[in-house]
Amino acid sequence: MSIITDCPYICAPNIMDTPDHATKTVVLDMTGKTVIKAGTPISADGKVANDETAIGILLQDCHACLGTRRGLVVISGRIKQDVAKNHSGVTISDEAKAALINITFTGDGARAGGGGVATKYILTIENTDPKTYTIAHEDGSAVTPQEVHDAFMSGPVMLEVGNDNFHEDSHVTSIDWQGSSPAAVEGVAIFATGAQAGSMYITIGDVSMGS
Q1: Are 141 and 105 spatial neighbours (Cβ–Cβ below 8 Å)?
Q2: Distance, CA of 43 to CA of 57 (rounded, Å)
Q3: Measured distance CA(93)–CA(198) in Å, rounded
């Protein structure tokens, strides 16, 4: 049995903005490295990948003294970009962010477009059976799947949710999109959470994934 007596990388900061997230275990490529720090973008083959091949962000430090190359990689959730950057030393590239469509980055320069001003859409819930949802811009005009995708990739997105009984702002936590490319999005599935509305799954356009 081995006992770890000195390992400086076993207390990484919490890079998650909210507790709701999904991870995938990846065998990390430690070639030439003694540590890969939490907050680093990782590819499917376990390499540090600050580009379009990134599949997620390393959740915890992986150090040679821990005796394992397996790392938990966040593939969906809200990540505190400033904390991740300050710890890992990696400024996540626009290409990596574009590839990580189910991860929201909070803090300065949250997404590829930077800034901290949220895009807000109006979501009306009709108490029919089944319930119906109508999403629109604040001026009442219709929202397209491409607009939602582009807004989410450039910064935080909020839904002003309401019906006859309540109103609240809900955070969009992730989206799935379908189309031939990020510039030709035909449909989006929006995942959002709110205190009163709970978890919401809303589709716009041509989305064939299950609810």
Answers
A1: no
A2: 9
A3: 32
Radius of gyration over alpha carbons of the chain, in Å? Answer: 19
Question: 195 pLDDT band (50/70/90 cuts)?
Answer: low
Model pLDDT, residue 103 = 87
Which residue type, as a one-letter code, is found at position 58? Answer: L
Q: Are 31 and 45 in contact (CB under 8 A)?
A: no
Residues with Cβ within 8 Å of 199's Cβ and at least 6 positions away in sequence, in order, are 191, 192, 193
Give yes or no for a contact between 168 and 196, defined as CB atoms under 8 angstroms apart.
yes
Burial of 161 (0-12, 13-18, 19+ CB in 10 A): buried
pTM above 0.85, yes or no: no
List, for residues 61-86, the tens digit of each pLDDT value. Answer: 888 766 668 888 999 888 888 889 99
